[in-house]
């Protein structure tokens, strides 16, 4: 295991990694190594793998464990790595989680199981998850109702982190969700509720405001990780204006990446353009850029790079 697991104070930028594929759709080991190096070179605090952006639902069990093992070996303990282990069955979830922890992961990320959006059902599910994982596996609770279809209230999040000591981090992706960040931050770190680390997703689209509301950083996959790193660094240094200036320079391409059902193809195309992966392919069924899309994206990249130089 790494020397430092994720905990209730964890902060910074945990970049969510893509899963690179070859032209034939196989997991690309060489690009996996290049992508890890790319993220490290751009100063990320940690990594998260096998999430939605990582197309984890399109991988076989063997591919998922192989990819996790390769990433963890390449990282070599230099930064913490969180592994997404959400699965339909608790046995499969626990098996992948324990494999990842034994291979050096710093914690696991779990989303609620699909089903009726009933608060006591969500609480019951996470109690079962924590019991299956055991007390030594730190858990990041993924709150992404736009994808899972399961909203979780701030009150339930606070109850879970009280009742389940393993739940030390919230991956916040609810939208609109700024009020929820305020509620979770105000309700944790109190006499009866331990502090909860909050890292935010949604591509970083609301990152300056989320940090101002009390978030500890970002856990998302924007293809310019240096922006996320600098925004969080400036905010932590007490310079929110600098943080917003940097953020604003990247906003057009950030917004372009956030197109529902299409953004992953854009993100992979940017990573390919930047030399981080050899092929921008998403695994079928998945979106693909047209020549018009690619020309549009290249223009956005050029304009972004020009703005950043001026900044």
UniProtKB/TrEMBL annotation:
Belongs to the DapA family. Keywords: Lyase. InterPro entries: Aldolase_TIM, DapA-like. PANTHER family: 4-HYDROXY-2-OXOGLUTARATE ALDOLASE, MITOCHONDRIAL, DIHYDRODIPICOLINATE SYNTHASE. This is 4-hydroxy-tetrahydrodipicolinate synthase. Pfam families: DHDPS. One of its GO terms (cellular component) is cytosol. SMART domains: DHDPS. GO terms for molecular function: 4-hydroxy-tetrahydrodipicolinate synthase activity. Pyruvate binds at residue 219. Gene3D superfamilies: Aldolase class I.
